[in-house]
Amino acid sequence: MKLTSTVCLGLIVSLTGCSQLGGGTQTQSQTMSAAHASCGKAVDADTSMNLDLIEQLMTSGRLHAALAHLDNLQSTSPYATYLRAEILRQSDRNQEAAEYYLSLLQTCMVGEAHHGLGLIAGRKNLLNKAVEHLTVAAEQLPVNARIRNDLGYALLLQGHFEKAQHEFITALELDQDARLAETNMMILLLATGEQSKAEAFARRINMDPQTVADLNEQAMSIRAQTRSR
Description:
This protein is mainly α. It has two domains: 45-141, Alpha Horseshoe (Serine Threonine Protein Phosphatase 5, Tetratricopeptide repeat); 143-228, Serine Threonine Protein Phosphatase 5, Tetratricopeptide repeat. The chain contains 13 helices and no strands.
């Protein structure tokens, strides 16, 4: 597959910082805070403060402490349930996490729930199911750069390179600090044989040659896997 000149232009725009929707960057913590603000309105001030603390513990990698505080809080709010699902998933307790995500599908956290279920499916190499969940998540939360990147990566693994490319560019334009999207875009360019564009992209994002070489190995593996399907 060859990337079109239109796509190349979009890529250049995203790299030069001329196009960023919403302004600012969207880290995982900011993404969760936005969900908290929109979905946690029913909780009282003390509960909200405790959920913020749990979120901070979680994003700093202190998952056991975060879960302990969540147990102590005993909140049944959708956001508390979402945090529990996220903590369990990041602790490799996927089956337990999936149960909590499923309980959120009829709540205001439906987009986040599908995202989590998509990540669990992807970890199990159930790519069709992963893409299905992540597509719904992107429809529910279209300006979430993290979700757009994750959907793009699942599409990349399926061999849907043009669709994956669209998601990576969207993620980069939504969040110019989306390092995973940069990495995944590089893998896509290498996997599709766009060597000159990959080299230009590496220069724009200051990616060192060793990292490019490592990503090229991943790209060749992905290309071989997609051809065998």
